[in-house]
Amino acid sequence: MEDGARGDDGQSLKGTDKTENFRVRLMTTPSEFSLLFEWAIAEGWCPCVYDAESYYKQDPTGYYLAELDGVPIGGLGTVKFGADVASITQYIVKPPFRGKGYGYRMWQEVMKTIGDRNLFLESAPAQRSNYEKSGFKSSWQTIRFRGVGRTDDDHAVNNAEDRVTLVSVDKVNFDDFCAFDQKVSGVSRPTLLKSWINQPGSINLVAVDSIEGIGQKREYRIAGYGCSRLCYEGYQSTSFSRKIAPIFAESSAVGLQLFNALVATVPPEIPFYIDVIDVNENAMQIVSEFGLESISSITHMFTKCNSVQQNMVYGVASCDIGF
Ligand SMILES: CC(C)(COP(=O)(O)OP(=O)(O)OC[C@H]1O[C@@H](n2cnc3c(N)ncnc32)[C@H](O)[C@@H]1OP(=O)(O)O)[C@@H](O)C(=O)NCCC(=O)NCCS
């Protein structure tokens, strides 16, 4: 397998240091992706259970494994969206091998494979200065909030009026759905979206401002959408938590309506997470009024331009890929 390992520009990444048998190679199977996601669980990042497969579908030539004497010691993902955009994700070296130069060597090798794309990532506080050295600029803080499924709806944030109708994603045209997502995320990602909404256990709601002709004449307008996916709480947990991701909405009222509906689907006592960006004050107000607890904060970074419509983000779609 190693002899065929190549970046998407066809460049081999093999044999970076012969004396140590350190090399960086393309991951070629979903199970290799899963290995990296296991390390992400150990870091406490709570990745979604089926996201490894979703990213693999989006970009089968995007994830790399660092090996020392044939043993995997680290990984790094680059989820590419066409020729212009890529997300850098899951930059991990196993703890005993940290601080020895392997991570940065892997990073430098992998960066050669992604061309001149505009890059996004979400940075842990300790890594921000490194990414700045590598050409990334900071934008907002992404704040992770944690809640627990309730047994009643007393805690829903009061919404003066529910302005839109929430329907299952299969009731709207998929191209319309993708177009709305692109308006907010700034990228075209139908492959990833299709995989996300088909994940086992996912709930996918679309806010439409008219249901006339749904499924027939398409006489409706999409005003937002929101999803919930199963995610890992940790190795010890006996059940999966929920990640409410994303909530994209054209207004605070629609964002709140989606938030209330998705939180209501979380089973009692089951933890859930939502990642909110500090620059969207309306989104911050919703989680604050609901009484959610903030548990961590990371920095959204990019290399060229940030095309995400921040005023429409009420929940980030994925902290792995940044939007
Ligand atoms: C982040 C991580 C992958 C770095 O790997 P590592 O093997 O420990 O790092 P290295 O030993 O290769 O670092 C060597 C040097 O390169 C720097 N460096 C590492 N990655 C870099 C990057 N992407 N850009 C610029 N510099 C970088 C380091 O700061 C270090 O600098 P120093 O010698 O001045 O101290 C590793 O520490 C890790 O797995 N941490 C936990 C997971 C995590 O937080 N990942 C990042 C999420 S945003």
TrEMBL record:
Q: Which InterPro entries match?
A: Acyl/Acetyltrans_Enzymes, Acyl_CoA_acyltransferase, GNAT_dom, YitH/HolE_GNAT
Cleaved signal peptide residues: none
Q: For the N-acetyltransferase domain, which residue ranges apply?
A: 22-164
Give GO terms: molecular function aspect only: acyltransferase activity, transferring groups other than amino-acyl groups
> What is this protein's name?
Uncharacterized protein LOC118404208
- Which species is this record about? Branchiostoma floridae
